[in-house]
């Protein structure tokens, strides 16, 4: 079991590395092409032949006002998609399906599907509320790329709706859980959710990805069908991006969107509380607790968890210091600290508790 968890965590690290490298290369390449195009179109090469230091501010302003942001976003989208695809292929080589004990295939009834969908809204809402506290109180820092009104934002949202659910579910639910499932369903669900949250790289997304990831991991282990988790992931991402599509047409639907989504979130929390003991939500706890907590006391998981935590907290600290340049006052600082502390608490709690759950320790053909 120790080797299986270490190998799985290292596979996720490889996924993140592939995503970062491919994304960096494609973003840099496409941005470079765009930079040459924009500078030539606006006559900025003539500036470079003169006093570059004196004209640097003018050149930078012209670039920011140009179509360069379109190239940056295009590179980011293609890089993210390409990186996730490459990472998935590598993960399947590291954790081959032929070595796994297959999860029994089951079909959910229509009522159960509806219950799970509402639960997904509830957990997503809880994670999003905690992770985005500053924005709920009007304190936020806009990313100039995503607030630029670039026509490439539609491509970004299309990838978020269709590409991300498929690629992320194949990696974190099918490949990862197929490998960890034989060693205990509860530890496998928490590990999948934890790594899924950490790979997002910031506290706001960590909270919602972790909360939603627990439900997705449970549904997959109970049904063995990744199509269910892809559909749930698609539903959440589509809901989150609907306001952006209307905004492109200069239509503000935020008030109505908040009312509808808020109702679904509250209903989902209530459903989750009332139906938490449903059969399709009950993970197996057979076997004996692992006294050595081998799920976390191994090289791969320690590197992944420590590295992921540093990434998440480092990003939030950077954003915190960035926010100090805005005249928001101490309340903005406090609100930005809450998601950081909640993320740390969730990570520590997961590490502490998972080893206390029973581990079945079934043996695949090879580890």
What's this, in brief?
It contains 13 helices and 2 strands.
Structural commentary:
The protein has 367 residues and is mostly helical. The chain has a domain at 105-359. It has helices at residues 2-41, 45-48, 52-64, 68-94, 110-131, 133-136, 153-180, 185-198, 203-223, 226-248, 254-274, 299-323, 330-354, and strands at 288-289, 358-359. A two-stranded antiparallel sheet has the order 1-2. The model has no long low-confidence stretch (mean pLDDT 82).
- Average pLDDT confidence is 82
**Classification by helices and strands:** mainly alpha
Q: Globular, elongated, flat, extended or rod-shaped: what is the shape?
A: globular
Return Rg in Å. Answer: 22 Å
Segments where pLDDT lies below 50 for 5+ residues?
none
Strand order of the largest sheet: 1-2
Determine the N-to-C terminus distance. Answer: 8 Å
Give the SSE order as H and E letters: HHHHHHHHHHHEHHE
Largest sheet: 2 strands, antiparallel
Count up the helices.
Answer: 13
Helix content: over 70%
**Strand percentage, roughly?**
under 5%
Number of strands: 2
């Amino acid at each position: 079991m120790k080797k299986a968890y270490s190998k799985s965590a290292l596979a996720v690290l490889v996924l993140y590395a592939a995503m970062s490298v491919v994304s960096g290369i494609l973003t840099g390449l496409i941005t470079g092409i765009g930079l040459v195009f924009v500078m030539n179109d606006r006559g900025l090469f003539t500036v470079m032949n003169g006093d570059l230091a004196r004209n640097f501010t003018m050149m930078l302003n012209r670039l920011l006002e140009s179509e360069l942001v379109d190239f940056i976003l295009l590179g980011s989208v293609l890089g993210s998609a390409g990186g996730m695809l490459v990472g998935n292929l590598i993960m399947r080589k590291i954790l081959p399906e032929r070595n796994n004990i297959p999860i029994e295939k089951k079909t959910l009834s229509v009522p159960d599907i509806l219950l799970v969908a509402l639960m997904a809204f509830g957990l997503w809402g809880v994670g999003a509320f905690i992770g985005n506290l500053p924005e709920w109180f009007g304190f936020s820092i806009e990313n100039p790329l995503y607030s630029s009104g670039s026509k490439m934002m539609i491509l970004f949202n299309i990838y978020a709706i269709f590409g991300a659910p498929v690629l992320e579910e194949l990696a974190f639910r099918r490949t990862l859980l197929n490998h960890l499932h034989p060693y205990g369903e509860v530890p496998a669900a928490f590990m999948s959710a934890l790594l899924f949250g950490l790979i997002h790289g910031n506290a706001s997304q960590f909270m919602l990805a972790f909360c939603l990831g627990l439900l997705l991991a449970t549904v997959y282990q109970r049904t063995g069908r990744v199509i269910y988790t892809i559909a749930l992931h698609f539903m959440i991402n589509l809901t989150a991006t609907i306001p952006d599509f209307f905004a492109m047409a200069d239509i503000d639907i935020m008030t109505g969107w908040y009312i509808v989504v808020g109702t679904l979130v509250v209903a989902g929390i209530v459903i989750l509380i009332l139906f938490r003991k449903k059969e399709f939500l009950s993970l197996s706890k057979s076997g004996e607790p692992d006294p050595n907590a081998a799920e976390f006391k191994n090289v791969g998981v320690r590197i992944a968890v420590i590295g992921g935590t540093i990434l998440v907290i480092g990003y939030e600290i950077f954003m915190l210091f960035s926010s100090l340049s805005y005249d928001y006052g101490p309340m903005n600082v406090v609100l930005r600290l809450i998601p950081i502390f909640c993320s740390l608490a969730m990570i520590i709690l997961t590490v502490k508790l998972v080893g206390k759950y029973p581990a079945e320790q079934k043996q695949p053909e090879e580890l």
